[in-house]
Design a protein that fits this description.
This protein is α+β, with helices and mostly antiparallel strands. It is built from 14 helices and eight strands. Strands 1, 2, 4, 5, 6 and 8 form a six-stranded mixed beta sheet that branches. A two-stranded antiparallel sheet has the order 3-7. A hairpin with a 4-residue loop joins β1 and β2.
């Protein structure tokens, strides 16, 4: 099926030319064609268009910039090279969150009150209070969240550590100033890859060196820990079914599961399933997690926080008795 063959790339070319010529009227007309043609574009066109749209972002006016980024994200979801698209999208997202932080500051300085919902449209009164660019930044944040998450599903993009760290700092700054979490983007920016993890099972006095990648939240991690350690016959308990484990790695969908552990830090404080693996403290350069018996029955839908992100947890080795004892020596009792 080749509806719209070449029409989308032609629209991209018209939009590129108008933006680079700073022809506002032509750009507006080309932008409208771009949206219509995208709906009928084939995968080949989208793969070619994604990097071109992402590279154009710095020259696109603030109004449509977020929409163009979402369109580039859609191209990535259909096969465009995320690593090629990501630099332009992450850089423009940093600008948007910087402008949004200024929006929050100006809003507070001009009387405060509840901030407008970033999913709404800016009004003249809002723009009058904060200025055009800060308002454009604030009201484009949902679009930047979508576009960036589409990039961050790819581990090659997550390895752009400097760019992602800078963006996370700006996201957290806006979240603190506004009370809006931007949870999907914040969690995506915290995803760890090829990250060493030492796990101590307190009841059996055993220890394990594992490695985690692409895990969006601790619900997903919890299920995979049970699969690797209980399913692998290393510790007692209820192992997840093959389906429960698969949906936490790369299979589609969700399926009900039951918690096997209580996740605890080395200082004895609970590490909640609702958080991310970055909540696990680092001790001597390695994240250290303690598994205690569950204090009560917990059930949840097993699956991936980011459905398009492949997750995994692998056991590198079982720790020997001496190494396990050295890790256990520094632990605090669990705190209820």
């Amino acid at each position: 099926m080749i509806f719209g063959k070449k029409k989308f790339l032609a629209a991209v070319g018209d939009f590129e030319g108008a933006v680079r010529a700073q022809d506002a009227e032509a750009a507006e007309q080309a932008f409208a064609k771009l949206g219509r043609a995208a709906a009928k574009a084939g995968d080949r066109e989208l793969r070619e268009a994604g990097p071109r749209l992402a590279a154009l972002l710095p020259s696109v006016p603030h109004g449509p910039r977020g929409t163009v980024a979402v369109l580039a994200g859609a191209c990535v979801e259909r096969g465009a090279d995320a690593a090629a698209c990501a630099p332009g999208i992450l850089a423009s997202a940093r600008e948007a969150f910087t402008a949004a932080a200024e929006f929050c500051t100006r809003w507070a300085d001009t009387g405060g009150g509840d901030l407008p919902d970033p999913d709404d449209e800016p009004t003249e009164e809002i723009i009058g209070r904060t200025g055009i660019e800060p308002a454009a930044g604030w009201f484009s944040l949902p679009q930047w969240e979508m576009a960036c998450v589409a990039m961050l599903n790819d581990p090659a993009v997550r390895r752009l550590s400097e760019a992602t760290a800078e963006l996370l700092e700006r996201v957290e700054r806006v979240a603190e100033a506004s009370g809006h979490e931007f949870k999907c983007l914040a969690y995506a920016l915290r995803v760890l890859d090829d990250e060493p993890l030492v796990v101590l099972h307190r009841a059996t006095g055993t220890g394990y060196a594992l490695r985690m990648s692409g895990i969006g939240d601790n619900f997903q991690l919890h299920t995979l820990l049970a699969d690797v350690l209980i399913g692998g016959k290393h510790v007692p308990g209820r192992a997840p079914s093959a389906r429960e484990a698969a949906v936490c790695r790369d299979a589609p969908g969700q399926v009900e599961t039951e918690g096997a552990f209580n996740l605890v830090g080395p200082d004895g404080t609970w590490i909640f399933n609702e958080g991310t693996p970055t909540d696990i403290p680092v001790v001597d350069g390695t994240r250290l997690l303690v598994l205690d018996p569950p204090p009560y029955r917990r059930c949840w839908p097993a699956g991936r926080f980011f459905p398009a992100m492949r997750g995994d947890l692998v056991l590198d080795r079982v720790l020997d008795a001496a190494e396990t004892a050295s890790w256990f020596a520094g632990l605090e009792p669990a705190k209820g």
